[in-house]
Amino acid sequence: MQTEKITIFNVYTGEIYNLLKSEMKNILEGEIPLLKRPKSNCNTCFGRGFAGYDSDKRAYCTCNRCVDKQLDTKYLKEIKYTCLVLRKKLSK
Ligand SMILES: [Zn+2]
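A: This is the predicted complex of the input protein with zinc ion.
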């Protein structure tokens, strides 16, 4: 499964894109791996993956209806932060 891709939500750019599994070791801070791409019928983010923008933190707030429930914890563990840790970091 060399070409298997992981969906990424970037909290700094608000973009959703795919990375190859083999690239996951180079994941950047703020790139959140997801099990599923946010759905366009989400009432909160409409598929954008974020519910708003925090100009103080300079980061998008992840959608708690879809993104937060679809975290790929396998890769979160590898990159040594959880969403909670990330949030604390961003809320400084
Ligand atoms: Zn959503």
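Residues 5-90 form one domain. The mean pLDDT is 83.
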